[in-house]
Amino acid sequence: MENTLDMEHVHPLKLFDVARKERRFLYASAPMVRYSKLAFRQTVFAYGTDLCWTPMILAKEFNRNRFARDSDFTISTNGPQPPTIVQFGANVPQELARASSLVAPFCSGIDLNCGCPQSWACAESLGAALMEKRELVRDMVVETREQLRQDGWAVEKEKDMDSPRGRSLSVKIRVHKDLRKTIDFITTVLGPEANRHIDFLTIHPRTRSTPSSTPINLEALEILTSTFGDRVPILVSGDVFALNALPFTSPLLNTPTPTNTNSNPVSTATAASTTSSSPSNPLVKPNLPKLSGLMSARAILANPALYAGHETCPWEAVETFLNKVVRSPLPFKLVLHHLSEMCAPGMSPFNKSALLTKQERAAMLACSNMVDLIDFLDEKRGRGGGLGLRRDRG
Length: 394
Ligand SMILES: Cc1cc2nc3c(=O)[nH]c(=O)nc-3n(C[C@H](O)[C@H](O)[C@H](O)COP(=O)(O)O)c2cc1C
Fold this sequence. Notes:
394 residues; alpha/beta; globular; binds flavin mononucleotide; mRNA processing
């Protein structure tokens, strides 16, 4: 991507447009409760991710409690602020509108979570429970767009994609067992043909009760992208494990890498021709010409350099992450969690190598502070010249 874009305020639809012109997918890192915080977002951004989601934030708490705001949403005032989508959990139009109004100056867009399957969320009519309340979801996005418009943000979708005040509004959904219900849901939430209510849509093609170990429903994804992909840019969330191991093909898979990274990519060209399973023919991957972007959660957690084409996490990504953590701190236990993901075998089916052995990871988890942790990793990486983070012993 050219560096002429003001990344901090770039409109997400502009990023879709740039990716399409580069004949590649838009690359997104998923909302992940606990994990997708600033230091992690900055790390994946350094490795070619276009758009970074925050974890889901509960709009009601965010609106009412200053401490919730301070702890749930951190931005960078000094250093790269990746294009950021703030995801809210909400079930009342005014709550979503108000919370969106508060974050709009500091992000590129707002997303509504209609996919969280956890029982506490569904019991409160949040997350996946909203998949049964399509009119409410429509009312939430309509009211929020109106609020943002009144606040002076440019919310006319493609018309405003070059405006520094452009902001997007999107939803992230799961699918129903009966796909007709999902089609009805999307039809309602999209609204009028000429003036849709959302800028883009993320589909996680699993139902609320499908375990994440079950492959995504490719048939559902194929039907939904071919039905709606001309009306709205669609991202897929689920099983984006490595660029050369996607369970579908696309004309957007023929160029190997984004240009905003200096990493060492593997070619994705092979992905279009490799075979794997699909519901209709177990040997042929479905082709999804109307799919616009990829969103990764578990795989990018293990390998933040995924979109730069790395099959496994490189030491450089560990170093980048630790450098970001030093400037945008995370609780120490969370840092350890991240590192144990990054140093373990990742999600690529073709490459299960790891930066540390199981015993070494256990030893890493025994570190009790940042200084010991950095020394430990420096020593393990010693063969490659250290992490560049060794403290000054002078
Ligand atoms: C640790 C973790 C936390 C998650 N938190 C959220 C969240 O806050 N909001 C959301 O919409 N989805 C959340 N998800 C779901 C992911 O965004 C994604 O849809 C799902 O994991 C499937 O993608 P994957 O196969 O790439 O993991 C979470 C997933 C994980 C693993």
